């Protein structure tokens, strides 16, 4: 056995139960005392579990680890973030009453704001979170001088929060996660049932329309059917209604979510929208009829100009309206 | 060959899977809610392992000879389906650079190993082969078997002469990022500087290739060669083919074509007897779709499979035996409308094995780096065709 192997095994391959796991990485259990300092939540595994579904619940397979792994690999140093004015404001009476066991929520706001909203839902209601950040902020370490202010309020509009050469700057997402982590941890400590209604957390900027230049880091991404459950899975889990949380009433979700929402609507699910700017919808989401997005078949080709590169794809995916990811490797 | 479940309780399996995901970058653990990592081992006997490696190496040597014969004949290059934009550079490129390949074996119902594909261009499963197999073996504490090969060491050794390596991948897919991120990690551990980007990030400045602002001495391409003509600046990559070491070189597009294996029967390639014998023994018979053969293929539907020339992950595969006569008729029609986009291959019936979740069809991939064995990557599908939703299962070789 080679030296490299032995090193690898030493690092990772020790038998289970011999202490290689970080015991603090598990979400707090009911009654546990939790830290109120956001700096105590910067470890990627801890964030992964805090912002993930109940470990015994049905939604665990859909929780996406990619961005969390990037925090570790890229040695990101998260910062605290100011709360968006809507998040900090007082809630109207009856807010979150719609968060019922038969309701799936998709928070689809720009970057850190989406995390702030989802964490607020989690902290103030009864639900569980599923992250969809299937990319890295940037695959290479930051050159000196490129790190911008990270403690700004999250941007309310796409496409860029920081470095304009990065298509989707999700450092802001990570900053929001650590900022909200003490509240999320405190909610875990009050007990979260395994069958709590699920809340998918998305970055609405994941597919910008800009065409990246050769010097731009293209980390746009789709949310595919490894992350979004289909109608049958949802129905068998007792879901009958989907609430889309968007920036405004006329918000058009990106093609991936648009196709999925349309598919669910045509399959008989109730669909509604809560908007950031209209507090009345925080109490009673407005019914919507979701329009389909552009048909793109991720499984059969190199996706599109809006999620990578290459030519636009004209075929619909084989899995209904939702993209199905295969990758370029054979 | 046999399968064996991980000797772990369900909570331990879950913790191990989380470890693979968060610490080793195996992010694609599920597809549509179903697990894509099976808590089993596929176990090869020591002699079986040696035989598979020998066959893969022999097949690869035959393919190398054939690739050289094909790429120097413009008409032949065109016939196997190499994109027109690449033909000239493929024909004139210097000696091939470092080469990473994966030879895929199916166990068939006539109880022998059949080569279904020889992935010559962008083989996946690198991180699984190099790290996950060993991690699972150690974490489960199994005895009497171990992973074979060291893919990470083989790749870093092949790229050792070049200090700065650029790695490119199709950025819309995190499953590809997880592959190149693993390779970058191995290279960095071996002292290389690495930079990861999309193939569209490649630029030439001062006579040198750059990814972003960083000059690179060699490239690791995890991006299909046949997609390069669709890039904003394909010329940058055509120049790479002439001047920059690249794993894999652009010439890999020749053998990656599924029409490649039909070439010996269609063109005078001047192959050696040994190569002809290897091709006849190890590869299924293939032929180009032609209108004049239509009736014969219709009549012998159950003997043929229709594949796309550059299909990936089982995309577009039509198995005659699994189709109605009408559906097969329509599939042939589609192929004959674009005959260069398809190939017909003789059908063989894969045999399933029992895994923890039930029956599955395994395909055992043998990684070779510059022709030397470097590891296994086994996937299991619920269907005879391996597609994107196939599951990874660690491969072990008995030590007793």
Automatic annotation (TrEMBL), chain A:
Name of the protein in question: Uncharacterized protein
Chain intervals with Gly residues compositional bias: 318-330
Location of region: Disordered: 303-330
Tree of life domain: Bacteria
Annotated organism of origin: Thioalkalivibrio halophilus
Automatic annotation (TrEMBL), chain B:
One Pfam family it belongs to: GSP_synth
UniProt cross-references to InterPro entries, sorted A to Z: GSPS_pre-ATP-grasp-like_dom (IPR005494)
Record keywords, A-Z: ATP-binding, Ligase, Magnesium, Metal-binding, Nucleotide-binding
Annotated transmembrane regions: none
Domain Glutathionylspermidine synthase pre-ATP-grasp-like per the UniProt entry, residue ranges: 44-397
Gene3D superfamilies (alphabetical): 3.30.1490.270
SUPFAM superfamilies for the chain: Glutathione synthetase ATP-binding domain-like
Superkingdom: Bacteria
Gene Ontology MF term list: ATP binding; ligase activity; metal ion binding
Protein's UniProt name: Glutathionylspermidine synthase pre-ATP-grasp-like domain-containing protein
Source organism of this protein record: Thioalkalivibrio halophilus
């Amino acid at each position: 056995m080679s030296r490299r192997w032995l090193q690898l095994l030493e690092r990772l391959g020790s038998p289970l139960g011999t202490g290689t796991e970080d015991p603090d990485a598990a979400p707090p259990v009911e009654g546990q005392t939790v830290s109120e300092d956001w700096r105590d939540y910067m470890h990627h595994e801890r964030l992964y579990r805090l912002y993930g579904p109940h470990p015994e619940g049905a939604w665990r397979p859909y929780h996406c680890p990619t961005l969390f792994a990037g925090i570790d690999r890229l040695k990101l140093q998260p910062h605290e973030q100011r709360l968006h004015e809507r998040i900090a404001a007082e809630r109207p009476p009856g807010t979150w009453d719609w968060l019922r066991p038969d309701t799936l929520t998709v928070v689809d706001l720009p970057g850190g704001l989406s995390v702030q909203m989802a964490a607020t839902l989690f902290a103030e209601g009864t639900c569980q979170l599923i992250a969809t950040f299937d990319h890295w902020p940037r695959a290479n370490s930051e050159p000196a001088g490129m790190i911008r202010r990270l403690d700004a309020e999250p941007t309310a509009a796409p496409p860029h929060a920081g470095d304009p050469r990065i298509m989707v700057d999700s450092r802001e997402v990570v900053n929001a996660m650590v900022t909200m982590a003490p509240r999320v941890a405190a909610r875990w400590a009050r007990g979260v049932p395994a069958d709590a209604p699920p809340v998918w957390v998305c970055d609405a900027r994941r597919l910008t329309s800009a065409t990246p230049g050769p010097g731009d880091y293209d980390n746009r991404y789709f949310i595919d059917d490894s992350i979004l459950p289909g109608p049958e899975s949802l129905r068998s889990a007792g879901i009958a209604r989907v609430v889309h949380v968007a920036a405004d009433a006329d918000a058009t979700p990106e093609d991936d979510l648009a196709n999925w929402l349309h598919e669910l609507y045509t399959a008989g699910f109730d669909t509604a929208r809560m908007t950031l700017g209209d507090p009345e919808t925080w109490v009673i989401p407005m019914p919507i009829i979701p329009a389909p997005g552009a048909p793109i078949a991720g499984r059969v080709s190199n996706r599109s100009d809006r999620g990578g590169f290459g030519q636009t794809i004209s075929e619909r995916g084989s899995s209904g309206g939702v993209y199905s990811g295969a990758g370029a490797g054979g | 060959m046999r399968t064996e479940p991980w000797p772990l309780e369900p909570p331990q399996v879950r913790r191990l899977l989380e470890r693979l995901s968060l610490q080793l970058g195996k992010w694609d653990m599920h597809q549509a809610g179903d697990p894509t990592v099976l808590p089993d081992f596929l176990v090869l006997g020591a002699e079986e392992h040696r035989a598979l490696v020998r066959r893969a190496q022999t097949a690869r040597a035959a393919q190398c000879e054939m690739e050289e014969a094909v790429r120097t004949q413009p008409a032949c290059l065109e016939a196997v389906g190499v994109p027109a934009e690449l033909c000239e550079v493929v024909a004139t490129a210097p000696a091939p650079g470092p080469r990473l390949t994966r030879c895929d074996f199916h166990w068939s119902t006539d109880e022998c190993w059949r080569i279904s594909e020889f992935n010559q261009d962008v083989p996946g499963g690198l991180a699984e082969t190099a790290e996950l197999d060993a991690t699972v073996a150690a974490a489960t504490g199994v005895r009497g078997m171990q992973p074979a090969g060291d893919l990470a060491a083989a790749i870093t050794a092949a790229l050792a002469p070049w200090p700065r390596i650029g790695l490119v991948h199709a950025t819309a897919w995190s499953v590809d990022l997880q592959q190149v991120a693993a390779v970058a990690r191995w290279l960095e551990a071996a002292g290389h500087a690495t930079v990861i980007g999309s193939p569209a990030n490649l630029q030439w400045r001062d006579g040198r290739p750059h990814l972003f602002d960083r000059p690179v001495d060699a490239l690791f391409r995890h991006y299909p060669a046949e997609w390069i003509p669709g890039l904003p600046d394909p010329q940058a990559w055509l120049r790479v083919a002439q001047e920059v070491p690249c794993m894999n070189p652009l010439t890999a597009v020749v053998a990656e074509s599924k029409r490649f294996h039909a070439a010996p029967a269609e063109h005078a390639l001047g192959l050696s007897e040994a190569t002809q014998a290897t091709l006849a023994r190890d590869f299924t018979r293939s032929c180009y779709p032609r209108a004049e053969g239509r009736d014969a293929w219709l009549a012998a539907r159950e003997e043929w499979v229709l594949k796309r020339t550059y299909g990936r992950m089982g995309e577009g595969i039509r198995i005659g035996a699994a189709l109605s006569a009408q559906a097969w008729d329509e599939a042939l029609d589609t192929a004959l409308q674009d005959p260069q986009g398809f190939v017909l291959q003789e059908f063989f019936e894969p045999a399933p094995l029992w895994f923890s979740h039930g029956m599955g069809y395994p395909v055992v991939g043998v990684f070779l780096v510059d022709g030397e064995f470097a590891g296994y990557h086994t996937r299991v599908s619920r269907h005879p065709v391996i597609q994107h939703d196939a599951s990874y299962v660690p491969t072990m070789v008995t030590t007793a």
